[in-house]
Amino acid sequence: MKKEKAVVVFSGGQDSTTCLFWAMKEFAEVEAVTFDYNQRHKTEIDCAKEITKELGINHHILDMSLLNQLAPNALTRSEIEVKDGEEGGLPSTFVPGRNLLFMSFAGVLASQVNAKHIITGVCETDFSGYPDCRDVFIKSLNVTINLSMDQNFVIHTPLMWLNKAETWKLADELGAFEFVREKTLTCYNGIIADGCGVCPACKLRKNGLDDFLRGAV
């Protein structure tokens, strides 16, 4: 893989930044793609720009504003409260079709830049119940994208079976622990680094960090 090219689906958050460092280690050339769907915080786009600039990564930003029109939720509407799902329901932050669209357009971009590998930070271990983060979905989509474009893309999910503590451990093994901790945006309230500390994303990130720091992984 070291001689080949990859595209990383990149949000500027903990998971996708860890995946970016993973890709930089595994592939000869890496590009990143960020999707602007009028998300709750434009800071996410700015954060992704800053990280890719610092790392010298060619960065594509694609307009996906149609998704904002189709899928009103807590990530696309500031008036909708961020909250976990109740009684098996999905969290208010679930954006229907997001990963389906993102991965499909990442495939189109990959075909244009002659990359055969697509990396995404989706995870089935520590996640909020999003159906489009499941391994079975990614495997199915990989087949569909390849059939649709007559390509042989490989979708990589380095974090699929890692919990948040193990994701911090991977960042540390990649020499990126401090970078990920200080420069990424995971917080639903748009606060970089350790975030607000109270939203679901911050709590998950902090619990994983605490477990990693006390040697639980």
Automatic annotation (TrEMBL):
Its EC number is 6.3.4.20. It catalyses: 7-carboxy-7-carbaguanine + NH4(+) + 2 ATP = 7-cyano-7-carbaguanine + 2 AMP + 2 diphosphate + 2 H(+). Binds 1 zinc ion per subunit. It holds the Pfam family QueC. Zn(2+) binds at residues 187, 196, 199, 202. The keyword DNA damage does not apply. Its cofactor is Zn(2+). GO terms for biological process: tRNA queuosine(34) biosynthetic process. ATP binds at residues 10-20. Pathway: Purine metabolism; 7-cyano-7-deazaguanine biosynthesis. Keywords: ATP-binding, Ligase, Metal-binding, Nucleotide-binding, Queuosine biosynthesis, Zinc. One of its GO terms (molecular function) is ATP binding. Catalyzes the ATP-dependent conversion of 7-carboxy-7-deazaguanine (CDG) to 7-cyano-7-deazaguanine (preQ(0)). Homodimer. Belongs to the QueC family. This is 7-cyano-7-deazaguanine synthase. It comes from Mesobacillus boroniphilus. The gene is queC.
